[in-house]
Amino acid sequence: MVFYLLYEKGVIKKDWRYMDLSFGLIYPNHYELGISSYSIRLIYSIINNEKNFVCERFFLPEKIKYPASEDYFSKEIIRSFENSNLPNDFDILGFSIHFENDFKNILWFLDKAKIPFYSDIRYKLNNENHHKYPLIVGGGPAVTSNPLPLSKIFDCFFIGDAEPNLYPFLNKYIEYKTNTINYSQFFEGLKNIEGIFIPKCNNSVKRMVLKNLDESPAPIFQLVVSSDSKKQIFEQNYFIEINRGCPFKCKFCISSFHNYPFRNRSYEKIAEIVDNAIELTDFQKFSLIGSCVSSHPKFLKILNYIIEKGKKFSVPSIRIDHITPQLIEVFEKSNIKTITIAPETGLDSLRFEIGKKITNDKVIEVLNLIKASKIKNVKFYFLIGLPNENDEEIEGIIDLMKSIDKIGFNKNQLKVNINPFIPKLNTPYQSSCRFYTSENFNSLKLRFQKLERELRPIKSINLKIGDIRREVDDAKLQTLISLGNENITDLMINYYLRGATRGALRAVETELNFDTDDYFKKIQNGYNPWTIGIIEK
Question: Does the predicted model carry a pTM greater than 0.85?
């Protein structure tokens, strides 16, 4: 990790002697993933823009062992990047939580820092000894989707967009820190800040939405990394969020349902950010951020503006029916090497059913356009385990990829990612967990195996499937966490303490008399442990 610190630009270091509040911002995974997160850059910038607040970052070491007590690292291994402070030195520790797979990493971090897992224990100790432990807060997509599996661990959660309520939250903490109010009064006061869920108070909360994206303070002095690491993805890029949410409402997608309404940053504001970035920061490429960047009404104009300014750009997955000869031409000017698309399924019928109304004919048409261009690599995302999916759908993926192979792509130019579908609460598919019950679980493995068997030999395809058994076991655990209630906290803690293995999970389920099948059937019958309304600001 020190290697990266030496090459970072835009790092903000402050003298703690003059700070009123310290915030440890944690991405519970490795540096390479965390520095590629726009939310980390955004929160880092917002907090440090306040002259008397300091925000410093934490990431996980490259190799860790569960539980933390059984690895070889001392607690010194987790120090902040900026000033090498320990987690317990901070007033607040804030976790940016994007994936259920990172839940065990959160426990590792707290364990290594010698911070008690349970919020009730910390609450009691903080009441007895003012500020003995940092306040533990969480935010991010996984939290907005469902904070309950972490509700016995975290003191509070930001539900939805954090921009409107972050400063009110921090200022309320200042009142507690300066003894203006006690710890109990602090939590009572938090209930009056919209968009913050306090499990201890079990307060009713609605999702906070920043209605006008121009009001989101785009970080101007961004963290940019210069190194020769082959692991780099977006670290050297300058991020601009151009829209938030998604207008298409695909039934499996949390961005469509947990981040609506779809909002675009204005072209004028984006151009201003581009100009300021070029003037103030040394970098080569812009990364455009958004769940559906190509739905911005001035998408092509934005890309052309960046090129006119002498910079390049990168974009995330592009909606297939938005790819045109004009768009490809602009991509070529930016020396784009790979276009990412997400057909999701291999048959029109299922694709239409999930809300993605794009035909295979359109997919083939677009792939022919790409093949005729200077952009030779295409990355695909498919989902398996979707509601109403049958064996024919798996054949459909195979047939579609074989048809694309015939277009004439060279070896490994078609990068195919196949992921198991993870249902999310408060989406139309929230109860669709049938593939994770015992009677259907093996069929998910067989589908992976069939796809691997049929697609792996095709030379143009670079198939991204790891250990199949691990993939589906991880997906089952993610689904349990995604759909879980408060009882999942105890399950996860015990699972973590036993080593976070497949065998550990089975042992803990028996020990706690928890039947995953029963829980999934309860979900299928309409049980929803967490619902969210919406507040627009």
Answer: yes
